[in-house]
Amino acid sequence: MMTSVDTELVRVLADPLRLRIVTLLARETLCTTHLVEETGARQTNLSNHLRVLREAGVVETEPCGRFTYYKLRPDVIASLAGQFAELAESARTAADNKRACP
């Protein structure tokens, strides 16, 4: 069963722009300027989404001069993937279980 922490992470990743950011960061470490170019989002909007991802522990920052680079924390994504894999396995096992109606 997924915990409330996992549910929160799913909610965080459910936003299309945040999922796009995560997808981009899975390929390379990028600064805000790169993410604005790649997504077409406004810098303020992008910064808000990056804050949510950072607070959820999905990304971490790396200062570099006047820029801040963002990189994905693969362990967090792998943990969530593991939770979904367990859920899928549970569904396979329970496929023949059917509760009788009263």
Description:
The chain is α+β, with helices and mostly antiparallel strands and 102 residues long. A three-stranded antiparallel beta sheet has the order 1-3-2. The chain starts with a helix and ends in a 9-residue tail after the last helix. The protein has helices at 4-14, 16-25, 32-39, 43-55, 74-93, and strands spanning 30-31, 59-64, 67-72. It contains five helices and three strands; from the N terminus they run ααβααββα.
Shape: elongated
Low-confidence stretches: 1-5
Number of strands: 3
Q: What would the average pLDDT be, to the nearest integer?
A: 90
Termini separation (Å)? 25 Å
- Radius of gyration from the alpha-carbon trace, in angstroms: 17 Å
Q: In terms of structural class, how would the helical and strand content be classed?
A: alpha+beta
Helix content: 55-70%
Strand residue content:
5-15%
Biggest sheet descriptor: 3 strands, antiparallel
User: What is the H-and-E element order?
Assistant: HHEHHEEH
